[in-house]
Amino acid sequence: MTFLNPIILFGLLAAGIPILLHLLNLRKLRTIEFSTLSFLKELQKTKIRRIKIRQWLLLLLRMLLIMFIVMAFARPTLKGSLAGAFGERANTTSVFILDDSQSMTALDEGGERFAQARNAALQVVDLMKDGDEVFLMKLSDLGTLSTNIAPTRNLELVRTALRESKPSYRHAALEDALRFSARLLAGSTNFNQEVILFSDFQAGSIASKHSPSSAREQLFPESVRLYVVESGSHEPNNLGVESISIPNSIFEAGKPFSVQARVINAGESNIENHIVSLFLNGERVAQKGIDVPPGSATNVDFTAVPKSGGILEGTVELEQDELDFDNRRHFTLVIPERVRLLLVGSSGDLQFIRLALSSREPSSTTALQIRETTPERLSANDVDAADVIVAAGLRGLSAVQASRIESFLDAGGGLIAFPGQQTDQNTYNTGVAGKIGIPQINNIETLQSLNSDTESYITFDRVETRHPLFRGMFEKGLQQSSSSNSGQRTIESPQVIKLVRYQLPTQAQSVITLSNDAPFLAELPVRSGRVLLYGVAALPQWSDFPFKGLFVPLLHRSVSYLAQETAQQKEVVVGEEQVVRSRVRATDRWVVTSPTNIETVVQPASSGAETIVRFNETNEPGVYRVRNGSTTVNAFAVNMYPDESKTARATDEEIQAMFDRLGIAEESIQRLDAGGEIHQQIQEARFGVELWKHFLLAALVVAIAEMLVARDSKAELASVQAAKA
Prior knowledge:
- By secondary structure, the chain is α/β, with parallel strands linked by helices.
- It folds into five domains: 2-78 and 691-724, no CATH class; 91-234 and 649-687, Rossmann fold; 239-331 and 641-645, Sandwich (Immunoglobulin-like); 338-563, 3-Layer(aba) Sandwich (Rossmann fold), CATH 3.40.50.880; 572-639, Immunoglobulin-like (Sandwich), CATH 2.60.40.
- Helix content is 26%, strand content 29%.
- The chain has 13 helices and 36 strands.
- An eight-stranded mixed beta sheet has the order 17-16-18-19-27-26-25-21. It has a five-stranded parallel beta sheet with strand order 6-3-7-8-36, with helices on both faces.
- A hairpin with a 2-residue loop joins β11 (271-280) and β12 (283-292).
- α1 (17-25) runs antiparallel to α2, α2 (41-74) runs antiparallel to α13 and α3 runs antiparallel to α4.
- The chain is elongated and about 145 Å long.
């Protein structure tokens, strides 16, 4: 047992006062026998014995009364610290971890969860004394804090920071917060160290995506106490848009494209016919009703048709539920209104390609701006001014040319490569492929001339008709047939008599495969761009491909497809850096406008043909616009981290698993209720359960007993004295 006011225990000496008074009242009397009183001895002996017992009982009761009163003022506890045994506890270093994620905006009978946690933290601050130190760490600040930060002893400053705290859109894991708090406490010299965690323990914020898979850690020494203050008494009914995916496609005005949204039900109720809507540039273009069982997710597919080119801002939105923060998710697309196309090759190698691309595809709404040059005259300006490059028969590149094409691919550019009449394996591998990082040629195979009497050629074997290049082509009148064996649609194949075999990496995809298993058309990512490799030259000496109905539309769609490489901006979650790349030359400082119209001036940097802007202030979800003067040059979407939609409370097993991974022993964890008397609970947890009320009650009971015994003792003593008289 520990006493919070042990100095009061000196008052126990007062328990000896009744003994002293009892001894002083004892007087040694001489006995004188009277014959007339002898008959009374036996009569009074029993009563006198009872009087003495009551006197000893009164002595005991009076001693206990004083002892209980002294013990009550000494504030005894069942458990305590070494500091409490000496009257004043040692200085304390406390780390406050305040969960400010959006799930803390849920409401219950106690009000908003975040407000409950904040008020509980303010109660704990009221317990702090002069000399105590506090680290205040909001979960959203985890990625920006440094372990070199110093604690504060200004408790009013802590109160102000708590009162001004609001829920944030940034995501962080409780597991990482506890790791960081251990690093903060490692620099403290105070005897008492504690971590106080205020959270609703939503499932999406428990485990870190950076958690090591190795054995459990040992974050804190045994002396560190962990107080867990949990908010929230019920699970909110919450649907959230967890993710959006847009399949690779050729995006053009007036042409449909697909949008797939994944909707998660984190609540405990079955959701039926909940409305999900798709918006393009602020206009609702589609909506559906969905059913989502509790604890599961469903995919919602939309088809949208953009009315015009340019920057397209899209949103998938749910109708309102108990938590609004994850009811919408954003995306952006850039639909090119024109494509700057650069043809590189000799006039002979490009003749059919030039003719095909110069004839406008009837279904296309994207204009082509075509420039042509020879490999010898290829300049940096030519590459910088292109969105897509079509190269035929490249034999060798200078170091400057290769470097410029690498920068072009780094910027997300697209390259279509054809062999040419003079293509040579060794020259191509060392002079082109080895310099810009595209696949080398294994060999060049020649079968026979098309004019030969003996037929010897190869044709298409497999065509990936689900590839975006072919999306919609079969409905536009291309020659097609149904295979009697497989039932799959095929397109009319050219007769190939000469081809190159490439050393394709594993990430390459064969779009069209020939009957000898060589790729006729392959796609692969190179740097940040994309390359389409044709296995035959666009020349009749290699095949009759230039004379087939497939030739013109496939070339046009190849160009359009590669021009879409940067159409979909990379998804950014709140708090992450966004790198904006643009082919627009920077004339001045650029301005980034947030979804709430907060403007931030940024300084663009030039890198080859690109203008690059790095932007870190992605503090809220929505669409951010980038302007160069009065012209919007780009836009990008920022969304919540997907796990934020997992608003259901983690199971006790999941929470315990987190503590086990971190090596936090169960006996060092004190669980508290944010809706209770935090001040009292923390104090009892620090020093033990106080027993002063029990001792005060015991003193009251003893006092009443002393009054009753004293009254009976006086009455009986009076009767004895009356009998003697």
